[in-house]
């Protein structure tokens, strides 16, 4: 199995920045088979939504609401994915979850425990 552990959440002023990290550990075979990694978030009273994804070769995709403000990146050598969040808004307040999808699956296979990001105005 694979464990995903997020870090970097907390409280930040609107307009500020935060960087989330997510590191995978566990089965070497399964880590090497991780394809798309991503970040999701779930705000208060809202459904979980996809924020950003990144493939093995670095192709990225973002939800419209974060384009130009958030950047997803990946360090394959250290099994880590990052989410750099700039120009944060109160509506970005949510629990952020890291995900990883094995290449033979069509949906995320593994999830992190989530990290709270609170943006105060």
Describe the protein.
This protein has 1 helix and 11 strands. With 121 residues, it is mainly beta. The strands form 2 sheets. Strands 2, 4, 5, 6, 9, 10 and 11 form a 7-stranded mixed beta sheet that branches. Strands 1-3-8-7 form a 4-stranded antiparallel beta sheet. The longest helix is centred in the first third of the chain and has 5 residues.
Largest sheet: 7 strands, mixed
Figure out the total of helices. 1
Uncertain regions: pLDDT < 50 for 5+ in a row? none
- In what range is the share of β-strand residues? over 45%
Order of helices and strands: EEEHEEEEEEEE
The assigned structural class equals mainly beta
Mean pLDDT, as a whole number? Answer: 96
Rg from Cα:
14 Å
The counted number of beta strands is 11
Helix content: under 10%
Give a concise summary.
This protein has one helix at 28-32, and strands at residues 2-7, 10-13, 18-26, 34-42, 49-54, 60-62, 70-75, 80-85, 94-102, 110-111, 115-120. It has 121 residues and is mostly beta strands.
């Amino acid at each position: 199995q694979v464990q995903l552990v997020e870090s970097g959440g907390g409280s930040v002023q609107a307009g500020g920045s935060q960087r989330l990290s997510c590191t995978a550990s566990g089965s070497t075979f399964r880590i090497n088979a991780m394809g798309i990694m991503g970040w999701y978030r779930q705000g208060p009273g809202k459904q979980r939504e996809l924020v950003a994804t990144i493939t093995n070769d670095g192709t990225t995709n973002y939800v419209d609401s974060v384009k130009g403000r958030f950047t997803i990146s990946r360090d394959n050598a250290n099994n880590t994915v990052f989410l750099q969040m700039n120009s944060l808004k109160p509506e970005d307040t949510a629990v952020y979850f890291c995900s990883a999808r094995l290449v033979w699956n069509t949906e995320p296979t593994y999830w992190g425990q989530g990290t709270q990001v609170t943006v105060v105005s």
